[in-house]
Design brief:
Bound molecules: flavin-adenine dinucleotide
CATH architecture of the largest domain: 2-Layer Sandwich
Order of helices and strands: EEHEEEEEHEHEEEEEEHEEHEEEHE
Helix content: 25-40%
Largest sheet: 5 strands, antiparallel
Strand order of the largest sheet: 6-7-13-11-12
CATH topology of the largest domain: Uridine Diphospho-n-acetylenolpyruvylglucosamine Reductase, domain 3
Shape: globular
CATH class of the largest domain: Alpha Beta
Number of helices: 6
Structural class: alpha+beta
Strand content: 25-35%
Oligomer: single chain
């Protein structure tokens, strides 16, 4: 177990932004995780779980309490026939390439974005080609008071970028059909090149992916990016944060950007989209601490 008091979360979030966690703890196995959760529950300390931080915007002032990352045993996975068992700390991108190599169908659909298995389940991550909820069989973990749980995919309440999974996810199993590796490789390539052409994915353009959920208007889901673009949002900026000229739902940052710049820019984007389309965009990015509802 590795404990780091006052650790800047900008070092651990994909967008390279955000203030410190009061205490960042890397846990390596169930026993360590259970003991951290039990202690935090007894002392009524706030607990947050961090994956690759690719969908989190941490405020400049940071967060109080404990931020837990799953490492060690939680970052291992194995294939057994059509079943993949993966710890929640496993990097999804490794599983995507290994599943294609092994001729297993189901993960190439999740290519092109950074995530841990746990973060992807929590967000029901995916896109046009599929979502992680489509291939999940079971998952398990702990409630924040340390009580273990186990559930099937049907119990996870998956919907668009949403799941209802309690507390910390630690492990998951997936059922993957057999596929021809050559065909799977070409599908993977297709997804990657489509994403590379349409999204700012390079290391020089840190972001949190899509800032806003695609809204449902009169029963039809619309692209938030298109709505922002039509409202004239591309290129809008606050400080070091800018609405990407490549994809209007991405806010990209320069090294001088702060989380406050991103939050202020998100507010401006919501305003112009509300004026132009009479639609209130809902953030997809998880803000820490959670903004107070007015
Ligand atoms: C360039 C870029 C492109 C992206 N493209 C896409 C895309 O195409 N589709 C898509 O869906 N998303 C996309 N995203 C967003 C992001 O990749 C996903 O939401 C991803 O699933 C987040 O995983 P993470 O491990 O980084 O989680 P984090 O960002 O660290 O956390 C996200 C949420 O999950 C919770 N969480 C994390 N791990 C656990 C766990 N073990 N147990 C319980 N809760 C947990 C966190 O507490 C937090 O609430 C993109 C992001 C970037 C930066």
């Amino acid at each position: 177990m590795n404990k780091r008091p006052n650790e800047p979360l900008s070092r651990h979030c994909w967008n390279q932004l955000g203030g410190p966690a009061q205490l960042l703890i890397d846990v390596e196995n169930d026993e360590e995780l259970r003991s951290v959760l039990t202690e935090a529950s007894t002392s009524q300390t706030t607990v947050r779980i961090l994956g690759l931080g690719s969908n989190v915007l941490v405020a400049q002032e940071g967060v109080s309490g404990v931020v837990i990352r799953l490492t060690g045993e939680f970052a291992t996975y194995s294939f057994d026939g059509e079943t993949l068992t993966a710890g929640a700390g496993v990097d999804l991108r490794k599983v995507v390439s290994e599943s294609v190599r092994q001729g297993r169908d189901g993960f190439w659909q999740l290519a092109g974005f950074p995530a841990t298995i746990g973060g992807a389940i929590a967000m029901n991550a995916g896109g046009r080609w599929g979502e992680i909820g489509d291939i999940l069989t079971t998952c398990e973990g702990y409630q924040l008071n340390g009580t273990p749980w186990q559930q099937t995919a049907a119990d996870c309440g998956f919907s668009y970028r949403h799941s209802e999974v309690p507390g910390v996810i630690t492990k998951a199993t997936f059922t993957l059909k057999a596929g021809e590796p050559k065909l799977l490789r070409s599908k993977l390539k297709e997804v990657m090149s489509e994403k590379a052409a349409a999204q700012p994915l390079g290391a020089k353009t840190p972001s949190s992916g899509c800032s806003f959920r695609n809204p449902t208007i009169q029963g039809v889901r619309h692209s938030a990016g298109q709505l922002i673009d039509q409202a004239g949002g591309k290129g809008l900026s606050v400080g070091g944060a800018m609405v990407s000229p490549t994809h209007a739902n991405f806010i990209v940052t320069t090294p001088t950007a702060t989380a406050s710049d991103v939050a202020a820019l998100m507010g401006q984007v919501q305003k112009i989209v509300a004026q132009h389309h009479s639609v209130l965009l809902e953030p997809e990015v998880i803000q820490w601490p959670e903004p107070r509802k007015s």
